[in-house]
Amino acid sequence: MGFFSKLFAPKKNKSVIGLDVGSSSLKVVQLRKHGQTAVLETYGELALGPYAGSQVGQATNLPAAKIAENLKDLMREANVTTTEGGVSIPFSRSLLTLVELPRRDNPEEQKTIVELEARKYIPVPVTEVQLDWFIVPEPVDEKAEPPQKVKVLIVAVHNDQISLLQNVVTTAGLAASFYEIEIFSTIRSVVDEPVKPVMVLDIGASATKAYVVERGVVAQSHNIPQGGQDVTRTIASAHGMTVDKAEALKKAHGFSAPKDTYDRKTIEIVFSRILQEAKRVQDHYERQTSKKISTIVLTGGGGVTKELATYARTFFSIEVKVADPFSKVEAPAFMQPVLKEIGPEFAVAVGLALRKLEELD
Predict the structure, then answer these.
(1) How far apart are CA 25 and CA 2, in angstroms?
(2) What average pLDDT does range 330-340 have in this prediction?
(3) Using an 8 Å Cβ cutoff, are 159 and 128 in contact?
(4) Residue 284 lies inside a defined structural domain of this protein
């Protein structure tokens, strides 16, 4: 993305970090390149809830100074040794829309058309956002006439979000060479299918993002206003326990909880709503495009919920799998079971670090 890759000039460094600034936690992954292999050096996570007078797993709205203070603590505890990397932009603070526009061979004419059209889709003044766009590649039939229209992905990010992240980075003493909307980082780390459409279900603390990825590009996105914290609160409310205890039990057991822990129906209440809405997104996309989604990939903090993939398969007639972003990096064999288990939570951070490594080539 043009603007986001030019905020700071990249510098060369053997080790890099990906920093995921989420609403409920901070996550960092440090990688280095060994030949053509990305090697995991360290990773860490810090829950933000307790620093906002809330509980672990709950969404927050902390100021930049407080986030930076917590970030420095996390980097110290995780033994991070570099300041060079990339930072995530929350999906909730951005706008993505795919539009079909007249095709122009002249780049300046195409730019003018896109920027004029973008104003129709951005619900705030254009001066309040940073705007970027790119043309979605389509299969080319060399025998056919060039298409009269092109698909364009328009991206806008609120200026105040960019300012917040810049303040966090500066205060924490880091050097970010790019800021990237979390969707693109996740695609890089968890989507391997090069052609067939894939749906990524990113279950965050306060909301779930459902987006369809086709040929590496976001073809459709949808925000579902339920997430992991809603599951935790439902357990706590139904069983008269603290939110902290409910969060711990949810993480430990998920859908495989013993009967004396909590009633499985309490966890199904929220997840069924999320999955039903995701099924509607799937059906809408398939009707609209006459293309079949091949796989559902579960990621985000809610994606680590035990046995969620098994439960989700009752809603979809296609493959449902849990994201495994650490499979794209080299790590000691004894760490593999843990990395596989926590992988969905670190999909954004891994994707950011992988992009940063590409800058070293």
Answers:
(1) 28
(2) 93
(3) yes
(4) no
**Which domain CATH number covers 101?**
3.30.1490.300
Distance CA 196, CA 24 (A): 33
Instruction: Establish if 255 belongs to a structural domain.
Output: no
Q: How many structural domains are present in the chain?
A: 1
- Mean of the per-residue pLDDT values for the chain? 89
- Kindly state whether residue 99 falls inside one of the protein's structural domains: yes
pLDDT at 15 over 90: yes
Mutual angle of helices 159-171 and 64-77, in 10-degree steps: 50
> Tokens 């003018």 map to which residue?
112
Strands, sheet with 217-224, edge to edge from the N-terminal-most edge strand: 217-224, 208-214, 198-203, 295-299, 319-322
72 or 107, higher pLDDT: 72
Sheet order of strands, 94-102 included: 94-102, 149-158, 129-135
Q: How many other C-beta atoms are found inside a 10 Å radius of the C-beta of residue 243?
A: 19
